[in-house]
Amino acid sequence: MTINRRLGVLHGVRVLEIGHFVAAPFAARILADLGADVIKVEPPGGDPVRQWGEQIDGKSLWWSVHGRNKRCITLNLKTERAQSIVHALAAQCDVLIENFRPGQIDKLGLSPETLRRDRPDLIIAHISGYGQSGPYRDRAAFGAIGEAIGGLRHLTNHRPGASDLPPVRAGVSIGDSISGLYAVIGILAALWRREGRDGDRSAHTIDVALTESVLSLMEGMLPEYGALAKIKQPTGGGIATAAPSDAYPTADGGWVLIAANSEPLFAKLMGLMGREELVGAQGFRGNQERVENVAAMDALIADWTRSYGTSALIDKLTQADIPNSKVYTAADCASDPQYLHRGMIQSVDDPAFDGPVTHVGIVPRIDGENGVRWPGPPLGAHTREVLHELLAMNDAAIDALRADGVV
Question: Which positions are tagged coiled coil (predicted)?
Fold first, then answer.
């Protein structure tokens, strides 16, 4: 596999995405951002995400990012001819990624066995709610369900007794995104094995569950339960295992996060507060005592932070080299000099909006590459191009498919 680094480290890898909503399309976007040729298959009505979020003239701003760097084609997979086209395209791809319910692609005539007849080493990545096996296999699930069953929704809530409101959501579809990242890791590992020194051209199947992806992030939750029968509880803005580390109020109604949970940092913070006598005092000796005494300690810190405006407090903490930040909004992110310096805030021309759309940059940075090649394209924008290029179809054949509702 020859890589042209100017085109991205995954240049030369071709991915067929049969995904919808968030998880598989997110994974495919990461691969596309890194240079893979991603061909996204959509039904004639399009991926529902094209209608999500804020819109201008019926066009989703989110789609500009969600579909970027991909070539989009339309296929009605309920027709046999469309299924045949997917088989032919898959034969020229390295990876296929999908996030239908388990067994659904088999019903569409696109089982791994049939897809690999013409491409035996095709890497196939499945993303689903509960995985391709097990008693919950056929249950419906979205990211929010994965977050609940994975234990995250319980832990993102307020402290017990602090609120009667429903458990708090993370704010984005993090369960979908995390499962998408795990799918990318699995795909890259399979590509490494396939292209590696041992020449193993075996087919590899990646099975990612939303629930398991979230559960894998839960740090000490399971070992603490297994050994101590302790059920980890939500801590609101704090951290159950480290203190002080929370958001503290300011004089102008803001909040500043302060993370001073190491011994040198705690000593620096107490020095700023004029409370040096608390360093090493009972209830403050070491992280464990501070965790046990967190309510009283946080109250002391909050009394101090309320004496300063947000900017003044941040300046004071930064000069003392204590980790801190205000709680960023979209406006803060878009104007942050660090993000701007590293190309994480990009203005991408999008013809759908007759001008630029603000995009998040590409993560991870590899050899300094961090460019968006094109925004999420219109529905079916590349159907003719892809069928010409990969399947050698002429215009008349493509027009006939369109007339018959296949594309």
Answer: none
Fold of domain 5-216+342-403:
Rossmann fold (3.40.50)
Q: Which amino acid is at 145?
A: I
Q: What is the pLDDT of residue 16?
A: 98
Distance CA 341, CA 358 (A): 15
Question: Out of 37, 94, 176, 350, which one is annotated catalytic?
Answer: 176
Whether the Cβ atoms of residue 372 and residue 68 lie closer than 8 Å to each other: yes
CA distances from 259 to 58, 131, 264, 275, 339 (A): 43, 37, 12, 17, 21
Running DSSP on this structure, what letter comes out for residue 49? G
Chain Cα centroid distance, residue 311: 31
Identify whether 364 is preceded by a cis peptide bond (ω within 30 of 0): yes
Round to whole Å and give the CA distance between 374 and 68.
Answer: 6
pLDDT in tens, 169-197: 999 999 999 999 999 999 999 999 988 86
Name the pTM for this structure. Answer: 0.94
Q: How far apart are CA 62 and CA 375, in angstroms?
A: 10
The answer to whether the CB of 47 falls within 8 A of the CB of 60 is no
Beta bridge partners of 255: 249
DSSP one-letter string for 381-407: TTHHHHHHHHH---HHHHHHHHHTT--
CA distance 210 to 213: 5
Homologous superfamily assigned to 245-326:
formyl-coa transferase, domain 3 (3.30.1540.10)
d(CA 360, CA 334) in angstroms, rounded, equals 9
Task: Pick left, alpha or beta for residue 251 (phi over 0 → left; psi -120 to 50 → alpha; otherwise beta).
Answer: alpha
Whether residue 256 contacts residue 305, with contact meaning beta carbons closer than 8 Å, is answered with yes
Check if 37 is active-site: no
